[in-house]
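A protein record in our archive is deliberately plain, so that people and models can read it alike. The tokens are whole numbers drawn from a learned vocabulary of local backbone shapes. For reference, a complete record is included directly beneath this paragraph.
>
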Amino acid sequence: MADELTTLVRLGDSDLTVANEAEDVRGHKVIDRSGEETGTVDGLLIDESERKARFLEIGSGGFLGMGKKQVLVPVDAVTRVDDDNVYIDKDRQLVASGPEYDPELMPEPDRPYFENLYGYYGYAPHWGAGYVYPRYPYRP
């Protein structure tokens, strides 16, 4: 797996499900490292072959749904999860300024797209040598 990028799919567009529904973070608010609300987890991008979430699809910005954009944030950014919120170690402005993600308009994202995305947030790609999948930040 070190040198290849498997297909990532939106969880809602696949036959896959979350093994433990209590750990499904879709619909949770995203809180940045300063405690500010950043958006909402609208979906998850899943590595089909390894059955692991790789990115949170976050709806960010806008007012009453107008002007809202979708961005992807690596699951590596998640520091904590509670019943209503997902906490990340990045600032709201960084997320809001991130590369926009629209699965309906963009072609199938490829390796350079994901390399740039990981680089934007300061993480090593999940296919790189020595990558360790982050442990799930269980609720307190």
